[in-house]
Amino acid sequence: MNTKPYIEKHKDRFINELIELLKIPSISADPAYKNDVIKTSEHIKKSLEDAGCDLVEICETPGYPIVYGEKIINPDLPTVLVYGHYDVQPPDPINLWDSPPFEPVIKKTELHPEGAIFARGACDDKGQMYMHVKALEYLTANNELPCNVKFMIEGEEEVGSESLGWFLENNREKLANDVILISDTGMISKEVPSITTGLRGLSYVEVEVTGPNRDLHSGLYGGAVANPINILCDMIAQLHDENNHITIPGFYDKVEELSKEERAEMAKAPFSQEDYNKALDIAQEHGEKGYTTNERNSIRPTLDVNGIWGGYTGEGAKTVIASKAYAKISMRLVPDQDWKEITDLFQKHFESIAPKSVKVKVSPHHGGTAYVTPIDSIGYQAASKAYEDTFGKTPIPQRSGGSIPIVALFEKELNSKSILMGFGLDSDAIHSPNEHFGIWNYLKGIETIPHFYKHFATMSK
Ligand code: BES
Ligand code: MN
Ligand code: MN
Fold first, then answer.
1. Mutation pick for ligand 1 pocket among 27, 126, 182, 184 (CB with most ligand atoms within 8 Å)
2. CB of 87 closer than 6 angstroms to any ligand 1 atom
3. What confidence score (pLDDT) does residue 28 get?
4. pTM score, two decimals?
5. Does any ligand 1 atom lie closer than 6 A to the CB of residue 157?
6. For 394-421, how does the pLDDT look when each residue is reduced to its tens digit (9 = 90+)?
7. Which of 82, 205, 228, 352 could form a disulfide with 325, with the two C-beta atoms 3.0–4.6 Å apart?
């Protein structure tokens, strides 16, 4: 198999098609973009048909539609189910973008001398999802598809994949597969390919602290009543101790501890703390005592404030003690923490540390279970060989700190392992202003994916 000549011949079209897809603002979190999200699902349907699927449907759900496509060449052959998402994060803060988030432009960067496409969703996940559509085009156009393929592209990943759980339960047969293939993660670098073998779980909550029943003059009342913003900051500060351990009782009870050998294996992955700090313009890293940066951001659980607000934040100064203060808090979880249990522990603890002078309300948002996949499965081995074919190197297995909660559900509902072949880089700025995806990475993904099919079909015999 040599995927290169076909890609070389069609690469301009592959890039232009992705650019068209990126122009539609499919922001699932914001109801104002409802029509655009739906329009994107129709766009994907058309691309799957053009790429060679025999059947493509837009499946309605209680939320946004799921695009399902398939090409079944022989029911006796194995089936690969490709999962991806066509929704994107809100582009905010919009003023920090160098070019508008839904007007894709190609620019060269230090890491991407071949150019990168700048747009919201370029890497997460439209660009990476679309690699699979183009890989299918390659396989069908060249008559090289060695097994069956199904696609399931959803529009609610960035808001918790609620409808997908429902869809899985109701469509087990339709979605039956031998392996699930996902490109929605990253790799170490262009020179060091890696396959993601783990994802963290998540518990996301919102807290509200209420002090007096109305906003007060901070001179007339200041010093005599609890200021909910001061109290909230104090309560948040208490959630970590001096070693940056999380102080919620029971939080670490079920955390899987890795063996010395496993940690030594992890430490072999190339990493420079200096480059890391430089890329983020920080004088020093920060985290849980006793763990390295790569351990802190993958095998250890965390608690972070994602947003905090209250009081006066407009122009100039206003002297006021606000009635309420709020924060959005996420906890990244690891095997074998149960996100519902952790949410409960958080709630109880947060309520227990509140002084009598305020009222506290904790509202859980969404959550998900962590995932770890073994490297001796046929799926992992086929992926590993695919990278060997196109990178000339064996990829490094690496656990990621991000979350794709649906992956644990795939295992539970469909009994399938997911193989995470991500082609993004940490510097691609997913969820941030100026998100981008290297053209090299995009084309390398399209080049590599067909090799996965080839090896998976051969090794499954
Ligand atoms: N694709 C990301 C997750 C990701 C990125 C995993 C890079 C590993 C490496 C996904 O779209 C995402 O953003 N997930 C959310 C969770 C979701 C419930 C909103 C996350 O990790 O914050
Ligand atoms: Mn994603
Ligand atoms: Mn995302």
1. 184
2. no
3. 98
4. 0.94
5. yes
6. 999 999 999 999 999 999 999 999 999 9
7. 228
